[in-house]
Structure prediction request, 457 residues.
Amino acid sequence: MAYNASRARLSPPAPAVPRPRKRRRSPSAPGAAAWCASPENAAAFDFRRCWQNPAGAPGRVWQGYRAPQTPVPSRQWVFAEEASTSSGDACTIMSYNILADNNARNHPDLYLDVPWDAMRWDSRRRLIIREIRHWDADLVCLQEVDRFREISAEMKNRGYECSFKGRTGDAKDGCATFWKSERLRLLEEDSIDFSEFNLRNNVAQILVLELNGTHKFVLGNIHVLFNPKRGDVKLGQIRMLLEKANALAEKWDGIPIVLAGDFNSTPDSAIYKFLSTMKLNISLHDRKQLSGLDSSDFGLYELCSLLNYQWTDEEVRNATGYSNVTVARHPLRLSSSYAMLKGNSSNRGHQGEPLATSYHKKFLGTVDYLWYTPGLECSRVLDTLPMGALRGTRGLPTREMGSDHLPIVAEFVFMEPTQDDSPQEDEAEQDDKSAQAAGTAKHIYFSSESDSSVDAS
Prediction:
């Protein structure tokens, strides 16, 4: 039969043969061992593939995920050089801003380089509890606590009693203090809601505790306003904490005081100077520069440091307590635990304080402190991580550290009474030098915040 070309062109095409579907996993080679989940294989797990959302629903998370069990980052104890003349009783105190879950969710711009699984609260909670348990402090002062029931349940299982003071308004977090019931007894408790004094809605706790049935002391726990431009409010909150702590200490026959918390002020700031020298002439400072967190040009600030800055009556009243008084004062002779013990140059600044206790997208520096008064001696502190190690994380939290702050820990021993209780030398006239010293600041603030920024992050 002759071939008909035109008929061939009109013939329907052959049906397409369906391509075989790809298998998700190639079968194992003959004789090869099959992979199964085990502690030995956990290290090889690829975290980039641990989340799947086959339904395409936004926000769906694989609930079966569990954070890997990683060791606590290595940190060393630094001991006092001279032998203590104490009566023997010692108490270890931790201060730790644990990053409220609600704050982390509301400010994702601060954690752009943090892996998604390191931001999950269930993962961070395990790391936070593990860190607290590892260092085994007698007293634990936490800030930014918005999952108090979960944290307190874990702590009570480990023999701690607790007290919580929540912030008012729309805020969901607060301060929480935990103490080992076998060693410490609560004698009296007070708190400060700064919103009652028009100083924003931050809070502080003040407790009177007794160690081993013999030594009494006052413990303060505070989370100071974050907003860098409201130095007047920051100073007012700290001043009020010091006054109330002193009043409670005097009520109990002049017992010593320890103040823990996130003070949201750097070691080179005027507020740090206020804490360490008992007074501050605010007219020599710009309120936006008072805490050392503002990123303005320090060169211009130094040129103007000898001028008197303009403060409104309200701002002066916030800072000093009186609208016609420009010198803020407090009655306590305070020493900073970390500054009193010489550390490694890789993680200590010119003030003796850690170079960094907090690290996120917009800030790398120190804002957490443990202050104490005469009657106590700091015998050792838990040194922070070197700057190189922190920078290598590209920001906190990580899969090994559960917060954007590092916990700081100090051990205090009770001293025998001495006759040398004279006040510190008045250094208020030198306050302008603290502003000039800001030019050598060790902290890094990556961007400024407006007056309407989050107040207590």
In short: The first strand starts at residue 77 and ends at 79. The two ends are 90 Å apart (CA to CA).
